[in-house]
């Protein structure tokens, strides 16, 4: 590709996601990337968008996100199977690759731009009191918009899933599936082979760039009596550097990890800009036999010989089930959908992680990530040439801590708060992108943050790990293009208020440690609108505070939960098959019975790895299954993998 074409493509992608006016430094970066012919050096080319589709496939995967990309790869390993992946969005872009810029993707064309119903319990500082549920509409799904944090959750999460009546989902059962995907690039962690592996498709590495604030936060943890640990290893309670799904300084989405290496497989078709509107289910046999979808403005149909797999995420998967006649009978009747199977749990049990925004600390040294200080040709060149520097920082996320509030049993090692600790915060971009991404009102932002715009700060976002409040999703209408009604119900359970309040107090205490005081750390204690009438630092004040700048961490899940047949609210069985319907599974964040103790992308990838194996177990004769496990790459795959990934071909995957 000529340099000019590379530059033109990059400029086009910048325009596509937000308009260059918001990304003023992008032209410099694009010029650098074009000059160094970045794309030509990149061995990982994008997959093809298949124009002409077959009439019938063995498997149809709906949604090419975190789970769908894994499924498409693993199922098409079986040479005799034809697999179709239908994705509503298009390709990821050069901008979505840049870790520092992920907030620019919110409210862009790569985002579905969902918003919840207004409620009084949370998100009071947001426009219309509605929380923004950003979600990826792009090949790679939310793994293209996320902040790339790699957290597996707690052993107890999975043992609890098993105890609910889901055999095969205990921690010892799922650990091999976390490892299966993993290419651990930290040599110290990689040595611990009980928990880690190298050579998998998904690159997991430390951040290429940290500020001095990160190291100080780790010292603060030590000062407060916490261990410095591998949070994905034997113990979860403690402090650690975050690890990321980053490869060579850029985002390693699931599209990049799982689809690019297999783009030349003849038995895998990927159809972009294909919005699935319905699963076709035979009313008499109750068997799923295909899907309807919109592409290029026309309605099309494609048939599945074996199975349809919904991997459209925790909002669209239950929506599609309901549009197809599987859901709570009474609700479907009210909306005017023919009921094929009454499944009261579809869309219910919604869980999410919320944190509190605005816990920020001023410091006296110019060491934090202030956007207008970083936006310069040096950092652009560093990113483009050496694949490190500030642009490789995932919006300043450096250190993670899992801590116990008084509501948790500390001896359990099942902490109830995660600190997401950042070397910047909401005002570090002068009130532009963070404010927009979080949907904050002008009044709130100006009153609380304007005076610290572009000043040196660090932030701690305390995130509540095991919410007891439950939201739900239901259909707005029979129109598949109408977004469903989304009700978060955040902080409607009193225990959640207590845990989050204690998390806020613990976060404020971190700023008081000697380690942070060395930087002149002081809490930005500006009283927030709506809570000014309450005395600061009291429980009443904090209880009010957490309902203002309530931040979703974008972990919507559990809306088509897995459970035993004795549980009327279970939507799928422990093999992820939809109850009451043949030939239909859900494999994505929806199937979690309870949300895991940490960020959920790694668990979703694990679910897809395990789900793909279950499908193989169900459909392949035993001898063939054994052969697949030691598969080596075909000639075409080797070409597609290129030199960079060639070791993937020689290991057991
Ligand atoms: C902004 C943001 C930040 C996050 N940060 C982190 C993080 O740092 N670490 C972490 O662990 N987790 C993070 N998460 C959460 C994590 O990325 C998601 O939970 C995970 O990606 C969900 O995977 P999924 O496969 O269930 O859904 P998705 O990845 O969302 O995939 C669903 C796919 O289905 C497609 N689709 C939907 N409807 C249709 C339809 N009708 N027809 C065809 N295709 C359809 C979508 O376009 C999408 O590609 C974040 C999420 C977001 C949004």
Keywords:
653 residues; alpha/beta; Cholesterol Oxidase, domain 2; 7-stranded mixed beta sheet; 29% helix; globular; disordered C terminus; binds flavin-adenine dinucleotide; flavin adenine dinucleotide binding; GMC_OxRtase_C; GMC_OxRdtase; oxidoreductase activity, acting on CH-OH group of donors
Notes on the structure:
The protein is of the alpha/beta class and 653 residues long. It has a domain of 200 residues: Cholesterol Oxidase, domain 2 (2-Layer Sandwich). The chain is built from 21 helices and 26 strands. The strands form 8 sheets. Strands 1, 2, 11, 12, 13, 14 and 26 form a 7-stranded mixed β-sheet that branches. The chain has a 6-stranded antiparallel β-sheet with strand order 7-19-20-21-18-24. The longest helix has 19 residues. The radius of gyration is 24 Å and the shape is globular. 55% of the residues are buried. The C terminus is likely disordered. The structure holds flavin-adenine dinucleotide. This is Glucose-methanol-choline oxidoreductase N-terminal domain-containing protein. Keywords: FAD, Flavoprotein. It comes from Bombyx mori (Silk moth).
State the low-pLDDT regions, or none: 17-21, 626-632, 639-653
Rough outline:
globular
Q: What is the alpha-carbon Rg in Å? A: 24 Å
Q: Could you say which structural class the secondary elements and strand pairing correspond to?
A: alpha/beta
What bound compounds does this protein have? Answer: flavin-adenine dinucleotide
Protein name: Glucose-methanol-choline oxidoreductase N-terminal domain-containing protein
InterPro entries: FAD/NAD-bd_sf, GMC_OxRdtase, GMC_OxRdtase_N, GMC_OxRtase_C
Keywords: FAD, Flavoprotein
Domain Glucose-methanol-choline oxidoreductase N-terminal: 136-159, 313-327
């Amino acid at each position: 590709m000529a340099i000019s074409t590379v530059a033109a493509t990059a400029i086009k992608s910048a325009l596509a996601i937000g308009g260059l006016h918001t990304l003023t430094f992008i032209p410099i970066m694009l010029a650098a990337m074009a000059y160094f012919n970045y794309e030509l050096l990149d061995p990982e080319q994008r997959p093809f968008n298949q124009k002409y589709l077959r009439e019938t496939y063995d498997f149809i995967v709906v949604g090419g996100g975190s789970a769908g990309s894994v499924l498409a790869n693993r199922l098409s390993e079986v040479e005799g199977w034809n697999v179709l992946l239908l994705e509503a969005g298009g390709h990821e872009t050069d901008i979505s690759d840049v870790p520092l810029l992920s907030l620019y993707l919110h409210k862009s064309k790569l985002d579905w731009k969902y918003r919840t119903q207004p409620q009084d319990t949370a998100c009071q500082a947001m426009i219309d009191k509605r929380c923004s549920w950003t979600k990826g509409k792009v090949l790679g799904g939310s793994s293209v918009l996320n902040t790339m944090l790699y957290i597996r959750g707690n052993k107890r999460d999975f043992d609890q899933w098993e105890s609910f009546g889901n055999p095969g989902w205990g921690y010892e059962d799922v650990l091999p599936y976390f490892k299966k995907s993993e290419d651990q690039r930290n040599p110290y962690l990689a040595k611990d082979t009980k928990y880690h592996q190298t050579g998998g498709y998904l690159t997991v590495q430390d951040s290429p760039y940290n500020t001095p604030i990160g190291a100080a936060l780790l010292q603060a943890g030590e000062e407060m009596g916490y261990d410095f640990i591998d949070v994905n290893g034997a113990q979860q309670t403690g402090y650690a550097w975050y690890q990321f799904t980053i490869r060579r300084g850029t985002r390693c989405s699931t599209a990049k990890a799982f689809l690019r290496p297999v783009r030349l497989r003849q038995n895998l078709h990927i159809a972009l800009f294909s919005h699935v509107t319905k699963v076709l289910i035979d009313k008499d046999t109750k068997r799923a036999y295909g899907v309807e979808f919109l592409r290029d403005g026309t309605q099309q149909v494609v048939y599945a010989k074996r199975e349809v797999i919904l991997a459209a995420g925790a909002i669209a998967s239950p929506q599609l089930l309901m549009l197809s006649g599987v859901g709570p009978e009474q609700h479907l009747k009210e909306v005017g959908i023919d009921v094929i199977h009454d499944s009261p749990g579809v869309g219910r049990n919604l869980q999410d992680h919320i944190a509190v925004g605005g816990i920020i600390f001023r410091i006296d040294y110019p060491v934090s990530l202030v956007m207008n200080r970083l936006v310069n040709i040096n950092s652009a060149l560093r990113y483009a040439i050496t694949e490190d520097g500030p642009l490789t920082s995932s919006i300043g996320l450096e250190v993670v801590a899992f801590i116990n509030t008084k509501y948790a049993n500390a001896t359990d090692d099942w902490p109830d708060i995660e600190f997401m600790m950042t070397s910047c915060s909401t005002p570090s971009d002068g009130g532009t992108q963070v404010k927009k991404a979080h949907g904050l009102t002008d009044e709130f932002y100006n009153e609380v943050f304007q005076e610290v715009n572009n000043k040196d700060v660090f932030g701690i976002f305390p995130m509540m790990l095991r919410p007891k409040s439950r939201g739900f999703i239901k259909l707005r209408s029979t129109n598949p293009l109408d977004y469903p009604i989304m009700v978060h119900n955040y902080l409607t359970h009193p225990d959640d208020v207590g845990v989050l309040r204690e998390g806020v107090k613990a976060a404020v205490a971190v700023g008081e440690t000697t380690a942070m005081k060395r930087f002149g750390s002081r809490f930005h204690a500006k009283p927030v609108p709506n809570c000014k009438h309450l005395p600061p630092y009291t429980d009443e004040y904090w209880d009010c505070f957490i309902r203002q700048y309530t931040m979703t961490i974008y972990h919507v899940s559990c809306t088509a939960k897995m459970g035993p047949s004795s549980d009327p609210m279970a939507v799928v069985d422990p093999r992820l098959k939809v109850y009451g319907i043949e030939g239909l599974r859900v494999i994505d964040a929806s199937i979690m019975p309870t949300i895991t103790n940490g960020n959920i992308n790694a668990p979703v990838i694990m679910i897809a790895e395990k789900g793909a194996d279950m499908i193989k177990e169900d459909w392949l004769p035993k001898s063939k299954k054994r052969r697949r496990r030691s598969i080596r790459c075909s000639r075409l795959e080797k070409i597609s993998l290129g030199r960079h990934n060639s070791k993937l071909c020689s290991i057991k995957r």
